[in-house]
Amino acid sequence: MQELRSAAEVAEATSDLMVRWAAQALEPGYPHERGAAWRLRNAVVVFAPRLNRADRVVHAGDEDDVVALLREVLPALTGQAVRLLAAAPLAARVSERLGHEVLATFGWLHLADDAPQRPTPDVEWLTEGDVPAIDALLREANPGSYLFPDDPGAVRWAGVRDTDGTPISIAGDSWPAPGLRYISGVATHPGHRELGLSTQVCTFLTRELAALGAVTLMADADNEPALGVYRGLGFRYSPICASRR
Q: Is 197 a domain residue?
């Protein structure tokens, strides 16, 4: 087993974008306890404390190697209510072999290289003065959001304003990793839905973040309206599973 000490070393060991996203926990400036990462033959495992509201153990690689590596590193994470995260087929097989409980299946999406570009004239970067309105909008329109303005992973917000200047549709740039950006906190005021505002905001944010690296997000598997928006923007869907020991 080899310990990987930086996001760059993780990127050299795997092309899996979700594992590389979790590797932000190895970098200076990560807002929580520093994470850890390991490699065993073709398997890579990253432990990322409090990443996107959970202590995550993200893994990828050949099934036998992943099982062997998890058996070695998980006992050291005593007292941690970790959530394991991986591509759905691998996660199901690994969970069965380790006796873990599969909690949910949802989607990991990444932006394709040939994603279309569209104008977004009404979308802008919001300001610090908009934070109370952003928080209020999320609590009304998306109270289960994994991102709020006071989250340490929140970087900045894009949005569309009403005629009085109040944000009515928003999305957040959050939890950035070297070479990757992550979208979360998407919400539109109930009184302004079905106008395509979320599409406009996500189009703007996707275009801006694509200049900085790969663009990724997570979405529920049964959220067809959101998935339709993301697919239309050029995101590709891969099923992933969360499990616990």
A: yes
The answer to whether residues 173 and 50 touch, using CB atoms and an 8 Å cutoff, is no
How many domains are contained in the chain?
Answer: 2
3-state secondary structure at position 157: strand
Claim to verify: residue 91 and residue 159 sit in the same structural domain: no
Residue 102, C-beta contacts closer than 8 angstroms, at least 6 positions apart: 91, 92, 95, 241, 242, 243
Tens digits of residue pLDDT in 92-112: 999 999 999 999 999 999 999
Task: Identify the CA nearest to 128 among candidates 154, 162, 163, 153.
Answer: 154
Task: Please report, as a single letter, which amino acid is at residue 137.
Answer: L
At a CB cut-off of 8 Å and minimum separation 6, what does 55 contact? 47, 48, 49, 80, 81, 82, 83
* Enclosing domain of residue 60: 2-99
Q: Where are the beta strands (DSSP E) in the chain?
A: 2-4, 36-40, 43-51, 54-60, 83-87, 101-111, 123-125, 154-161, 167-177, 180-188, 214-220, 235-244
Residue 109: inside a domain: no
Beta bridge mates, 25: none
Single out the residue in 99, 131, 154 at which a domain terminates. Answer: 99
**pLDDT digits over 3-52, tens only?**
999 999 999 999 999 999 999 999 999 999 999 999 999 999 999 999 99
Cα–Cα distance for residue pair 26/12, rounded to 1 Å: 14
